[in-house]
Amino acid sequence: MKLNKGLLVCLLLLSFFASRIEGGFTMHNGRIVDVCEVPTMSVEEHFAAGAKALEAGDWNESVFHFKIITFNFPDTPYGQEAYYYLGISYYYLEEYDFANTAFSDYLQGQTNVNYFQEAILYKFAIAGHLAGGAKRRFFSTKHLPKLACGKKLAVEIYDELIATVPCHDIAAESLIAKGCLLWEGREYRPAVESFQMVIRRFPQHELSPDCYVYISKLYLEQSYYEFQNPDILAFALINLGRFTRDYPREERLYEVKADVEAIEEIYAAGFYNTGLFYERVRKPRAAMIYYQEAIFQFPDTCIAEKCMERLNYLDPNFILPGVSEVMEESMGEEAIEGSCIPLEFEE
To answer: Cβ distance 23 to 34 under 8 Å?
Structure first.
């Protein structure tokens, strides 16, 4: 039995309010608060108890004490530090959205933070978990199940890190991780922009060559879905040219060249399959136009040989204008042996 989304949301909200009522509220300092957020000791004692629980790995207990401090004593020196330790506690409880919020509050709370780099690294790790499939809680409340997708939040964290430490290695790694996450969602253009930003901003970084390869693989994948888009091949060739210029001795140049050749095969196959369609509907002259176009635009592809075979079948006396000798040479058995990329475009 399937529940519609509206009913599911209603059930979740009822669960939330029921749990809140069960937990109970009380008055503290003139306001209604959850009983779990009412201090029972001084701020110093709560901080010491939280630190002891943190050291012992009792994450729930440390969350209890540090949450009380951040809620009731946020402007004290203990309150500022408590956000950091609260983030650590939530991180090891795998409450990644709460941990991210705590670290953000810590970083924004003061200009001179003692654990700036550590907090940045934790946020990067949180984004990695969310990008890898870790879930977050609905409506950012612990009283609702942890079933919501965390990938959008991961992208937001990467953007935050890129803006916060724009020249740090973490920014380069965040750009690459963001690009891969966008690529996974088939957001090709912003993914390419993310990889290209690494190349522009960190030209000497060891990860820059990887970005050229990622862009090449991305264009190849995109060409399967948009084989009629001429820009993809043009951009892939530009990427290859820049990669060759910047890293002429890079071993993976052959991979990028192979990707460009594969894209050409896909484009040529588009013309070839269109030609086959016109043959099926008994329009041989139209089919011949598409076969010739494939040969003219992509003469070095394996598909070009198939197109020539179809042209000769449709018209045994056919001579390709201006390129017959070139085709004969480039598509000879010795020239194409071992160079063809196997494609399964025909039915």
So the answer is: yes
Q: CA 53 from chain center: how many Å? A: 36
Average pLDDT over residues 91-116: 89
pLDDT of residue 41: 85
Local structure of 136: helix, strand or coil? strand
For 60, list phi and psi in degrees, rounded to 5.
-65, -40
Beta bridge mates, 149? 135
Q: CB of 216 within 8 A of CB of 260? A: yes
- Extents of the domains making up the chain: 270-336
Return d(Cα 60, Cα 45) in angstroms, integer.
17
> Containing H/E element for 32?
strand 31-34
What is 93-112 written as a DSSP string? TT-HHHHHHHHHHHHHH-SS
Residue 343: predicted pLDDT: 38
Q: How far apart are the first and last CA of the chain?
A: 40
- Give the pair of three-digit tokens for residue 215: 């862009």
Token match 């139209």: residue? 286
Q: Which spans in 226-252 are helix H?
A: 230-246
Both structure tokens of 73:
């004593």
**Three-class SS state of 31:** strand
Which is nearest to 294 in space by CA: 308, 312, 314, 280?
Answer: 308
Give the three-state DSSP class for 345. coil
> Burial letters for 109-141: b for 16+ Cβ neighbours within 10 Å, e otherwise?
beeebebeeebbebbbebbbbbbeebbbbbeee
Q: Per residue in 129-159, pLDDT tens?
A: 999 998 888 766 666 777 788 899 999 999 9
Answering whether pTM is above 0.70, one says yes
- On the question of pLDDT at 25 being above 90, the answer is no
